[in-house]
């Protein structure tokens, strides 16, 4: 498996080897990653299995520059699989990112992207929640919220909204994945997925509205046990299609 560089100025795109796509139905997707180690072959094989998607990979540091350019408008959807916890954004970078989402972005955030930009409170308004990794949240009542995770948990994903295009036609399914607990989910998100496993928070997938954007967040996706799960693949494919095709 190989990934492809993004050409910011020529706006050229590439497709993965062996993939045949009907161009009238194809979506051009930009996948944002960072230095976190993960099974790249298994992860990108998941996207290769989506027959109407062509993808490029870009680093988290590079995409910050893209937010302020017209080049990003070329892509039908962005998928964020990065986790820039300690990155300090400049005021210009913050303004560019906020403008991008306010104007109407097509974006899916996965798993550890909930930990991103923990020094910037506004990011939780974009993604719809927050994981408090190293620095806990002290509530106005003096309570402490410290998020936690657990590897390799077998649990059931419950489809909370069976009418939404992201989940329509899907049934509850089981998955082996990392769980998160004690994270914050904004009260105004549209809940798509839940679980009752004790090592996890209840809400594990949602749609968040920010400006003119409707953003999908899916908590699953830590490793190949999730990438290879056919139900998770269907869920992710649905989410990309929904945000990337005018949310029809």
TrEMBL record:
UniProt xrefs under InterPro entries: Class_I_gatase-like, ThuA-like
Pfam families documented for this protein: ThuA
Naturally occurring in which organism (per UniProt): Echinicola jeungdonensis
Domain annotation ThuA-like: ranges: 56-243
Name this polypeptide is given: ThuA domain-containing protein
Domain of life: Bacteria
């Amino acid at each position: 498996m190989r990934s492809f560089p993004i050409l910011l100025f020529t706006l050229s795109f590439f497709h993965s080897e062996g993939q045949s796509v009907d161009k009238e139905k194809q979506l051009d997707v930009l996948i944002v990653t960072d230095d976190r180690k993960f099974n790249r072959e298994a992860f990108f094989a998941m996207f290769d299995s989506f027959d109407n998607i062509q993808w490029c990979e870009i680093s988290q540091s590079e995409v910050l520059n893209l937010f302020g350019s017209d080049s990003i408008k070329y892509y039908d959807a962005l998928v964020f699989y990065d986790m820039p916890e300690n990155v300090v954004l400049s005021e210009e970078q913050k303004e560019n990112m906020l403008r991008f989402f306010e104007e109407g972005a097509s974006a899916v955030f996965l798993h550890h992207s909930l930990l991103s930009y923990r020094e910037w409170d506004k990011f939780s308004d974009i993604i719809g929640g927050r994981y408090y990794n190293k620095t806990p949240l002290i509530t106005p009542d003096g309570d402490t919220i410290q998020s936690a995770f657990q590897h390799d948990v077998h649990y059931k994903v419950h489809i909370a909204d069976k009418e939404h295009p992201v989940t329509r036609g899907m049934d509850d399914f089981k998955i082996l994945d990392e769980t998160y607990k004690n994270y914050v989910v904004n009260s105004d998100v549209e809940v798509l997925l839940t679980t009752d496993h004790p090592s996890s928070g209840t809400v594990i997938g949602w749609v968040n509205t920010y400006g003119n954007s409707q953003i999908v967040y899916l908590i699953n996706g830590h490793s190949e046990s999730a990438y290879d799960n056919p139900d998770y693949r269907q869920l992710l494919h649905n989410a990309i299609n929904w945000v990337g095709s005018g949310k029809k």
